[in-house]
Amino acid sequence: MADCIFCKIAAKEIPSSIVYEDDNIIAFKDINPAAPVHVLVIPKQHISSVLDLDEENVALVGDILLKCKKIAQDLGIAEKGFRIVNNCGREGGQTVGHIHFHVLGGRMLSWPPG
Ligand code: 5GP
Ligand code: ZN
Questions:
Q1: Could you write out the DSSP letters of every residue in 21-53?
Q2: N or C end of the chain, less CB within 10 A?
Q3: What's the gap in Å between 79 CA and the centre of ligand 1?
Q4: Predicted TM-score (pTM) of this structure
Q5: CA 54–ligand 1 middle distance (angstroms)
Q6: Strands 82-85 and 101-105
Q7: Domain ranges of the chain
């Protein structure tokens, strides 16, 4: 999608620090990390948010969760614990309109979120 920063990252038009990639998914380090490990996992296909999931594309999310697990294991945060976050909409804290899942770890994470 034109003017979508994460579509441009998926297309390698904008550089990023990629930690995982396959035909459907790409994962890269967050430019402004909130934890020692902070990776964003996205579908290459443009989906704006959870609100745009449907029967046709929801299988991608299951695949993304498996890749979040693999990334957590590969980056060494699986054993101690980590968090997967999806922000949806303005009050949910979503700032980029291309669905993404944060994988955060490497420190004690507090709860509830702000
Ligand atoms: P959201 O607030 O939408 O849940 O998360 C968007 C995330 O994308 C933020 O954590 C922000 O730091 C990250 N981000 C925004 N622009 C870029 C970028 O150009 N490159 C990378 N690697 N991360 C970005
Ligand atoms: Zn996009």
A1: E-SSEEEEE-SS-SSSEEEEEEESS---SGGG-
A2: C
A3: 26
A4: 0.98
A5: 24
A6: antiparallel
A7: 5-105
For residues 3 and 48, the answer to whether their CB atoms sit within 8 Å is no
Atom 8 of ligand 1: nearest residue by CA position: 30
114: confidence class by pLDDT, cuts 50, 70, 90: confident
| CATH of span 5-105 | 3.30.428.10
For tokens 């550089």, the residue is 15
> Tens of pLDDT along 9-41?
999 999 999 999 999 999 999 999 999 999 999
pLDDT of residue 75 exceeding 90: yes
Question: In the structure encoding, which two tokens stand for residue 96, read together?
Answer: 């980029």
> What pLDDT, in 10s, does the model give residues 33-73?
999 999 999 999 999 999 999 999 999 999 999 999 999 99
32 lines ligand 1 (CB under 6 A): yes
- Considering only CA atoms, which residue is closest to atom 18 of ligand 1? 31
